[in-house]
Amino acid sequence: xxxxxxxxxxxxxxxxxxxxxxxxxxxxxxxxxxxxxxxxxxxx
Length: 44
Prior knowledge:
The chain is mainly alpha-helical. It is built from two helices and no strands. It has helices at 8-19, 24-33. InterPro entries: SinR/SinI_dimer_dom, SinR/SinI_dimer_dom_sf. Residues 1-35 form the Sin domain.
């Protein structure tokens, strides 16, 4: 069985973003704009 690692802090951050009404696209846009890592995957 393949194990997956979920970063709880990231999960909580995404949940909070959704609570205030941000869409997944807006979250990805924010992360790509404010990231030092320009290799962020942005699935459509």
